[in-house]
Amino acid sequence: MPEFLVDTDKGRGTMKRVVITGLGLVTPLGTGVEKNWTGLLEGRSGIGPITRFDVSDFPTQIGGEVKDFVPEEFIEKREIKKMDPFIQYAYASAQMAMDEAGLPITSDNEDMVGVIVGVGIGGLSSIESYHKVFLDTGLKKVSPFFIPKLISNLAPGQIAIRYGAKGVNYTPTSACSSGSHAIGEAFRLIRLGEQQAVIAGGAEAALTPMGLGGFIAMKAVSTHNDEPDRASRPFDKRRDGFVMAEGAGIVVMEELECARRRGAKIYAEVVGYGANCDAHHMTAPSPSGEGAARCMQQALRSGDIQPTEIDYINAHGTSTPYNDANETKAIKRVFGEHAGRLAVSSTKSMTGHLLGAAGGVEAVYAALVLDRDTLPPTINYEEPDPDCDLDYVPNTPRKAPIRAALSNSFGFGGTNATIAFRKWTE
């Protein structure tokens, strides 16, 4: 048996430990982990005027576009036309994470390596473009790649084809919790010994006329068009909605002994996962953050973590009036007096809201926080809101020893997910 394999018949019924060994990012802050980390520590916003389509008649004209992504650097040219941008972002992020992890996939372990990528909306740009083609020309110009380009599960499907990963392969679609659900379900599978490794995260590319238009109709997005880089302002009193963005965040997760035997770099240990539903309203969170609180409590119980051990929360922090106030209430409900000692930041202040990709991106950020003992700030925090009165790491990054952290994701339909991480120490 190759040394990177674990005999899964030994120790069945015991819980495996799960670690993160590879990271990949495509976001409005840049393509690549280090570009993102530098942007976070600089407190730089990736938000700007939308350039890909005409927004002159839109009340919201700003978004988090990925500006530096070159698909040819990651994907064979002939394959690019078969992939909607959300698949391209996932594929590239997975390649970065796998290159870093150095995880071998061979005939000996291929069925024990899976891919789970959460996607909230899917190939909206492909739907829009081919709908126009169909109206203009009928069926004769509709591409045979149309369906494979737009369906969500082709994000993990294309990654699996690239690496020969023949384990579990699917896509959680749970709005803004999709990426966190993907990582949480991967954690469960590895913990139970059903998989040895999973490439997991989230991807989204729905910043299109219909995508943005739908959120405008809901009055969910910011209209601070005059100052795009200050429009996403989580927990600030003047917040007026989220800023729509795109990209992907992927992690390679492995059973600990697998990673140890290969001598892999370990960023953090994934120790807990909470997933539940508010069962309250189609778009609004439950009053007082009740559902979010239960979700965080589930993650703490799952990881056998005391609330006082948590030093940092990467908040869902969307910059909407309801979410930020309710998430603050939920944190207070779970942590009591310790809530005032917690550092809570929203990296969406810099990236915007990547919808189904948000949980994947923010899991990468949480792993980096634990690995590097540095807290990214919540930028644009200028006017405190009495309903949001925690330590949001305002405007400036901070060095701090972090023992354990949570990453929160909450979505339409009342869907919630929380991932718990511990600092890795030998």
Summarize the structure.
The strands form 3 sheets. Strands 1, 2, 5, 6, 7, 8, 9, 10, 11, 14 and 15 form an 11-stranded mixed β-sheet that branches. A two-stranded antiparallel sheet has the order 3-4. With 426 residues, it is α/β, with parallel strands linked by helices. It has helices spanning 33-42, 77-80, 85-101, 124-137, 146-150, 154-163, 178-191, 209-217, 256-262, 290-302, 321-335, 348-351, 358-372; strands at 18-27, 30-31, 48-49, 62-63, 113-119, 169-170, 197-204, 247-255, 268-277, 310-314, 343-345, 374-375, 398-399, 404-411, 415-423.
Q: Which stretches are low in confidence, meaning pLDDT under 50 for 5 or more residues running? A: 1-12
Major beta sheet, specifics?
11 strands, mixed
The CATH architecture assignment of the largest domain turns out to be 3-Layer(aba) Sandwich
Number of strands: 15
What is the terminal separation in angstroms?
25 Å
Query: What is the structural class?
Result: alpha/beta
* Continuous helix count: 13
Kindly estimate the percentage of residues that lie in beta strands according to DSSP: 15-25%
